[in-house]
Amino acid sequence: MLTATQKEVKVWPGNAYPLGATFDGNGTNFSVFSEVAERVELCLFDDDGINETKVNLQEVTGYCWHCYLPEVKSGQRYGYRVYGPWDPANGHRCNPAKLLIDPYAKCIEGQVKWDRALFPYKDIDALSGLDEGNSAPFIPKAVVITPFFDWSTSHKPNIPLNEMVIYETHVKGFSIKNTDIPEEYRGTYLGISHPSSIRYFEKLGVTSIELMPVHHFVHNDNLLRKGLRNYWGYNSIGYFAPHSEYCYSEEIGEQVSEFKQMIKNLHEAGFEVILDVVYNHTAEGNHLGPMLSFKGFDNKAYYHLVKDKNEYYMDYSGTGNSLNLRHPNVLQLVMDSLRYWTIEMQVDGFRFDLAATLARELHSVEKLSSFFDVLHQDPILNQVKLIAEPWDVGEGGYQIGKFPPKWSEWNGKYRDSMRDYWRGELGFLGELARRFSGSSELYSSTGRRPFASINFITAHDGFSLTDLVSYNGKHNKDNLDDNKDGTDDNKSWNCGAEGPTEDENIVKLRDKQRRNFMTTLMLSQGIPMLLGGDELGRTKNGNNNTYCQDNDISWYDWEIIDETFLDYVSNLVKFRREHPVFRRRNWFKGTLAEMEDIGWHRPDGKEMEEKDWGLETKFLAVFLSGHLGYADSMGEPIIDNDFYVVFNASENKIDFVLNCPFENAEWEKIFDTSEEKMLEGQVFARNQTITINEHSMMVFEHVQTKE
Questions:
Q1: What residues are paired with 410 via a beta bridge?
Q2: Number of structural domains, the chain?
Q3: Which residues are catalytic?
């Protein structure tokens, strides 16, 4: 490793591409983009991160400043200083006093040490003069890494979209309190891929692990001053670097190899890994925010700026800034990052946070922006799983159902409709039917299939499932913002109590509502997404915005597990996997009122008519044909059993007639959410009158036909 005492540094011209620091086994090529720079210094640091050797980059190709240093090996710490215009009014913020993190850094060591020198202005609260304090002692250093890793026993599972069951979780929170995992691995990449974790995922039956942000992120200064931390990680500063705090080893650069080992372990066990990625904004905040990387290299290129007021940033994400993907080099950054995680890190797909921001060419959201065009044409990325959070906080930002082919979307309408129905709201039968059958009106017109819909009831952003049925409003005081943060959209569940209770009737109702939600989710057409910990009965004490709670509020408590509910959920997932009728590849045929392979029924067993959908009732039954109308990979027709599913969100028991197209058919009751477990042996005849309990759901399977 080069040290700062070596003043004479061998410098070769190197190449403009690839960008970043690329170690080839002998030396390292460095390349960084800045169109506005007048001079760029590569700064090499010794082991203490303080002593600095500067290399003036002489070669510039296509606005990429580059060199090759034959003496620099993996483990070398580095950063950049950029000389150029300081003119915030015109969007330029170059300041060589500020050490900058390489936008293409593949490894970043440690966290920001908040100091006045990190900020652009002399006065932190005003657009004052240039601050010339040296930020190098306070900013994390990029690290040169070795790219070599043995993937020989690993391959991507390539799970068909319609067979996916997504498990959304957090690297640290999942395993930090799991005593079945060695202490040094808890809360790390190796913790989530430890054999005990893998056994758990296998028991649960999920297929795809969706990790909350693992791009290197920053803990906000304002949170640290309150004794809080940016637990969720939606504050990226390194789009190529695995977050360093999830690494158990103290050796520099090991987070890269540990991340790869996590992927390898999960792949060998048959699990996919989806990354939650945050390309809509960075950790540098608004005009008063710190100068950590992008601002100092080329502020006007990297960010959307306010027209005619270039000292300010357009904020479509609610975090202070928005990346400017209309600039070709910024678009290249995002595409290079995605390819890096796909090829070098072997991940299987991406969930894009506030994805509507990525589509903003100017101010409006355009479905076919440059980002989507390039992604669609990329021979690597058009084969991975692409999931959008189809909204942002800007004008016109709610874009559900409007993403291009090959994309799946978080279906916010599914979440809202299912919550409203099971809450007992009137007028939601049509919404229940549309969402349960795959939301075809949202996705079919763009050539997409039912798996375009990512169905969910809860996600990291909001209540856990247990809290959803236990609280009528948010309880976010631990966030130290006077309970003003987070949305307060839970409305009343008529549960009779707020939070924990010993009232047996209330507890039973809450447990039944959890089973209703989970059963509906797992049997709906589309891809179900389970919020990690919901199956355990995890509570966050009514906090629906735990972004800053890196503590017991957010962490899974493996000593307090609702084993009964965990078994129920595991059986549900297994049941879905065994029956393709609940994970169809194609849409149901016909209209909502007249479908060939699905039928909607009233309590009297008759099929729903147009006028019935507007009735103030909370009952709906559905017949699902097991003849799916398509073949498997060998060309054999896929035929499942027929099913009859009954919903009752009312406060009263309801008698209904079990109707189906077959004479003398017999039906076995498999699920009744009034019960804690799967059922067997209860057989009913066609046209038999059955009673369903209040706030309940039933599932019947066609078991035989008498001759």
A1: 454
A2: 2
A3: 353, 389
Contacts of 527 by beta carbon, 8 Å cutoff, 6+ apart:
161, 162, 164, 165, 166, 408, 451, 453, 454, 455
Look at the block and give the residue holding tokens 């959890």: 514
CATH number (domain holding residue 643): 2.60.40.1180
Q: Tell me how far apart the alpha carbons of residues 216 and 111 are, in angstroms, rounded to a whole number.
A: 9
Measure the CA angle with vertex 43, ends 55 and 82; round to 5°: 85
Q: Are 82 and 37 in contact, with CB atoms under 8 Å apart?
A: yes
For 302, the token pair is 């990297």
Give the count of beta carbons closer than 10 Å to the beta carbon of residue 630.
11
Characterize the bridge pairing of strands 166-169 and 208-211. Answer: parallel
Any domain includes 92: yes
Cα separation of 514 and 434, whole Å?
21
Q: Which residue range(s) make up the domain with 146?
A: 1-150+283-321
Contact present, 415 and 127 (Cβ < 8 Å) = no
First to last CA, the chain: 82
- Four-residue CA torsion sign, 541, 543, 547, 549: negative
The edge-to-edge listing of strands for the beta sheet with 665-672 is 598-601, 619-624, 643-648, 696-705, 665-672, 683-685
pLDDT bracket for residue 492 (50, 70, 90): low
Task: Look at residue 683 and give its three-state secondary structure.
Answer: strand
In this structure, what is the dihedral angle of CA atoms 470, 476, 482, 485, given to the nearest 10 degrees?
Answer: -110
List the 108-109 sheet strands across, edge first: 52-56, 39-45, 77-83, 141-143, 108-109
Tens digit of pLDDT for each residue in 387-424? 999 877 777 778 898 899 999 999 999 999 999 999 99
